[in-house]
Write a structure and sequence with these properties.
The protein has helices at 5-8, 12-24, 31-42, 44-47, 52-75, 113-123, 155-161, 176-184, and strands at 81-82, 88-94, 102-107, 134-140, 145-148, 166-172, 190-197, 201-202, 209-210, 214-221, 224-228, 238-241, 249-250. By secondary structure, the protein is of the alpha+beta class. Helix 2 packs across helix 3. It is globular and about 70 Å long. The protein starts with a helix and ends in a 10-residue tail after the last strand. The relative contact order is 0.09.
Length: 260
């Protein structure tokens, strides 16, 4: 909130006036309570031990919000607009990125990816046939990447996090039949093998990504993705919960991957 003080007039002092009496249970006349709140906000990275990765993530979120505000107010005054009731009007495309394929949809906070897909199909009077696996995709044109959203994933957080080069696309999932057949023949679904791995790190807090690709052995099952130094390792170096992963298909150009 404080970083938007030029827009919302809520600078350190004004925030302290609002939160001081509530957090310290004072009558609003105690200046020391307000001063404490100002210190907590101004020095929160030191007080709450916010590491560089967390800080950069917060700054990226703020940058995305600012860019979206600019886009709403200038570039796309009709395509994307926040209404008073908290809904968000967004342009969604059907199968291809063309003006004739765009649809303006009012998206409440509770709307899921599957609800958005059926909303667009209903508007275009497109019947859903047997084995028509329609999905909502997050598409990044600049990086040539796309991600099928989980059918229960809420759409509004995606809209607030995507950049100017990204958009939502409703299209069929071409690999669904193959995935269903594969899963039906497996008792214990898991995959393993060697992959190239790279972790982004900043240089001296400048936000410049660095790091090289390394060969690592991975094991993927229905619950977790585990990374080992090599095939003979017994203890994983890293482990991720599958339901928390976001998997993009395509090429992130600025990474310059060693393989395709």
């Amino acid at each position: 909130v404080q970083r938007f003080s030029e827009l919302n007039q809520m600078n350190l002092h004004n925030l302290a006036i609002v939160f001081g009496p509530t957090l310290f249970q004072t009558d609003g006349k105690d200046y020391t309570a307000g001063r404490a709140i100002e210190d907590l906000i101004q020095h929160y990275t030191l007080i709450f031990e916010v590491d560089e990765q967390q800080l950069n993530k917060q700054l990226e979120e703020i940058k995305a919000i600012i860019q979206m505000r600019e886009k709403l107010n200038t570039k796309f005054p009709i395509h994307q607009r926040t209404e008073r009731d908290g809904h968000f009007i967004c342009t969604v495309y059907l199968e291809e990125l063309k003006d004739t394929a765009e649809q303006h949809v009012k998206i409440p906070g509770s709307m899921t990816a599957v609800e958005l897909a059926y909303e667009v199909l209903d508007r275009r009077n497109i019947p859903v046939k047997y084995k028509d696996y329609w999905s909502c995709w997050e598409v990044c044109e600049k990086e040539e990447m796309e991600r099928p959203l989980h059918y229960q994933e809420r759409v509004l957080p995606i809209l607030h996090s995507v950049g100017n080069e990204s958009h939502l696309l409703i299209k069929k999932q071409p690999a669904m039949d193959a995935m269903i057949i594969y899963l039906a023949t497996k008792v214990d679904v898991s995959k393993h093998g060697m992959m190239k791995f790279r972790e982004e790190r900043s240089i001296l807090g400048l936000g410049l990504p660095t790091g090289n690709f390394h060969d690592r052995f991975f094991i993927l099952n229905v619950t977790s993705l585990r990374m080992y130094k090599d095939v003979r390792s017994h203890r994983p170096e890293r482990e991720w919960v599958v339901k928390n992963l976001k998997i993009y298909l395509g090429i992130k150009k600025k990474l310059r991957p060693p393989t395709w």
